[in-house]
């Protein structure tokens, strides 16, 4: 989907695959500004897809969509979400229900991923809740709205570091940390995966950013995990899962648990507690 963003799209909608004869396919609807000229957009999109290794197919088409103030329509559709055993995600503008003992996390809108609606975010939160240990040192790579970092802090993590290389996402995440009074619990910075993973070892890494990006930074992630450390990998299509798991195995990571909400998959991987390639885990 990064090819669409590179071509200037405003949003991408992923529709469920249709079962039938032949290979299963996803339908992606990418929305571009109405002022975009058709032919230049076709050329720009074709180049972006080529860079991503996708050859233009006969199934793609461009059409004009009437403006309905889509952001407002989408916002009105959002509702508070109970995720896992103890989390309550409340999108901004929603009337907060009684928490019922759940840990509440408010999320405001912005040009950053992570409101809790998407299956990959929900699965990440479920794996985080189930496998975070008290005091774990946590790294959230590609934090977006900061939702995973905030959940980690709410669930009892130790130091939490959230990084992103998008200044707009960092602005949204900073506002969410302020709203949730978690500014002192989460360290937020603009940084890439290599630099973030080189500075210290982490007990748990959270990565919800898509298969192609995960494949590129997985060696950095593996180096940044303490022996016995775990990583949640999400934003992966089920069809991309085998390639990711093979690469992870070569890096000394094994799949400990997987969740699937088709077409999406989320993986929890772990590094052996005794790994001679890394220094001993710090107390």
Q: SSE layout and pairings?
A:
Layout: H1 2-6, E1 11-15, E2 27-31, H2 38-51, H3 70-77, E3 81-83, E4 87-91, E5 103-107, H4 119-131, E6 138-141, H5 147-154, E7 160-164, H6 167-179, E8 186-190, H7 193-199, E9 202-208, H8 211-224, E10 225-237, H9 241-250, E11 254-261, E12 264-270
Parallel strand pairs: 4-5, 6-7, 6-9, 7-8, 9-10
Antiparallel strand pairs: 1-2, 3-4, 10-12, 11-12
Helix pairs in contact: 7-8, 8-9
Overview of the structural elements:
The structure is a single chain. 33% of the residues lie in helices and 25% in strands. The protein contains 9 helices and 12 strands. A 7-stranded mixed sheet has the order 8-7-6-9-10-12-11, with helices on both faces. Strands 3-4-5 form a 3-stranded mixed sheet. The longest helix has 14 residues, at 38-51. It is globular, with a radius of gyration of 19 Å. Residues 276-283 have low confidence and may be disordered.
């Amino acid at each position: 989907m990064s090819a669409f963003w590179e071509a200037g799209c405003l949003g991408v909608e992923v529709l469920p695959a249709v079962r039938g004869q032949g290979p299963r396919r996803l339908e992606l609807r990418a929305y571009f500004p109405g002022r975009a000229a058709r032919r230049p957009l076709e050329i720009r999109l074709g180049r972006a897809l080529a860079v991503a290794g996708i050859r233009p197919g006969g199934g793609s088409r461009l059409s004009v969509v009437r403006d309905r103030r889509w952001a407002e329509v989408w916002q009105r559709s959002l509702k508070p979400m109970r995720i896992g055993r103890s989390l309550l995600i409340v999108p901004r503008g929603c009337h907060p229900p009684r928490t019922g003992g759940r840990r509440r996390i408010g999320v405001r809108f912005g040009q950053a991923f992570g409101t809790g609606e998407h299956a990959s975010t929900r699965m990440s939160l479920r794996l985080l809740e189930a496998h975070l240990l008290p005091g774990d040192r946590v790294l959230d790579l590609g934090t977006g709205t900061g939702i995973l970092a905030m959940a980690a802090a709410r669930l009892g993590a130790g130091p939490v570091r959230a990084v992103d290389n998008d200044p707009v996402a960092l602005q949204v995440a900073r506002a969410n940390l302020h709203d949730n009074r978690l500014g002192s619990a989460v360290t937020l910075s603009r940084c890439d995966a290599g630099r973030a993973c080189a500075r210290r070892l982490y007990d748990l890494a959270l990565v919800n950013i898509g298969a192609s990006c995960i494949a590129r930074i997985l060696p950095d992630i593996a180096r940044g995990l303490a022996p016995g450390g775990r990583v949640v990998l999400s934003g992966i299509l089920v069809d991309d899962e085998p390639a990711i798991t093979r690469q992870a195995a070569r890096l000394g990571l094994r799949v400990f648990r997987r969740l699937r909400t088709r077409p999406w998959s989320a993986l929890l991987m772990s590094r052996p507690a005794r790994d001679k390639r890394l220094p001993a885990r710090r107390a």
